Amino acid sequence: MKTPAAFYKPLAVGAPAPYRELPVRVERMIHFVPPHIEKVVAKVPEIARTVDVVLGNLEDAIPADKKEEARAGFISLARNADLGSAGLWTRINCLNSPWVLDDLTEIVSAVGNRLDVVMLPKVEGPWDIHYTDQLLAQLEARHGVDKPILIHAILETAEGVKNVESIATASPRMHGMSLGPADLAASRGMKTTRVGGGHPDYQVLSDPVEGETRTRFQQDLWHYTLAKMVDACLSAGLKAFYGPFGDFSDPQACEAQFRNAFLMGCAGAWTLHPTQIDIAKRVFSPDEGEVAFAKRILEAMPDGTGAVMIDGKMQDDATWKQAKVIVDLARQVASKDPEAAARYGL
Ligand code: GLV
Ligand code: MG
Known about the structure:
Elements: H1 4-7, E1 29-33, H2 38-42, H3 44-48, E2 53-57, H4 67-80, E3 87-91, H5 100-111, E4 117-120, H6 126-142, E5 150-155, H7 158-162, H8 164-168, E6 174-179, H9 181-188, E7 203-205, E8 216-218, H10 223-235, E9 239-242, H11 251-264, E10 268-271, H12 275-284, H13 288-300, E11 307-310, E12 313-316, H14 317-336, H15 338-344
Parallel strand pairs: 1-2, 1-10, 2-3, 3-4, 4-5, 5-6, 6-9, 9-10
Antiparallel strand pairs: 7-8, 11-12
The structure holds glyoxylic acid (GLV) and magnesium ion.
């Protein structure tokens, strides 16, 4: 563990100083794009106007014989596409793969100044962050990158979940984490074949009562991991995200899973299909009724202390803080979305 003084020092001479706090950005959806498919890439500038983050995916779902094309496609996208205010991320290949070194060296040398965040898959422990952190600092220094490229870890191995707290605090370069339910299921030996979401057989049963049919309640398979990830991230000043929801034919289940994540503390989710963009936008923008109520709390307690009653509900310093979370988020969303600004009256 580094000393506090060393923690914020650049790891290479000439690399930009690490952020002390994350830049404030609205990141309700991280929209995945396969950069080797020209037809999809051509639509990115149009899609970028509807999403908060565009991510060029180089890892899983990109066939082994298309890895170089995907990397080149991402570099060309970063150089040429007008993405407006959308952030630009890439998901590189994992650290033990044959592609990752070229992913990082080629991308940072070509478009390091355009890149906001590198998503790092299959992170097992802080050592994976330290390695990537050091390499990024060397590449930033060599290629004159002027702001730090952040690291976003995917939490998708049993060992990663075990080490989630030390991953979160491994470096000031950490942006946040996403739950990777598909790889995590495999790594843990879960008996599922889905990408995120619930499972009909994961249930509890009501007690037996003679003459009555017992009620079954489906439980959320991801509750434990999500909660653990949110605590690790938020206690370290990072952002937590639900990852992918793979059943594109079930928007209701996607919305339910995203909403649980939002309520639990997540900032956004991945969108793998254009139909998921509106779902994420709806879910990860605070509800206008909640915003209106939260504004009333803030107005009723101008200095954030004491106790007041609003509509029969007790408010105090702690509910003031909850209200501030909601109003701060609403302000951030409103600052980039005039329709939301009007809805929130901000
Ligand atoms: C995402 O990468 C997952 O494995 O779910
Ligand atoms: Mg994965």
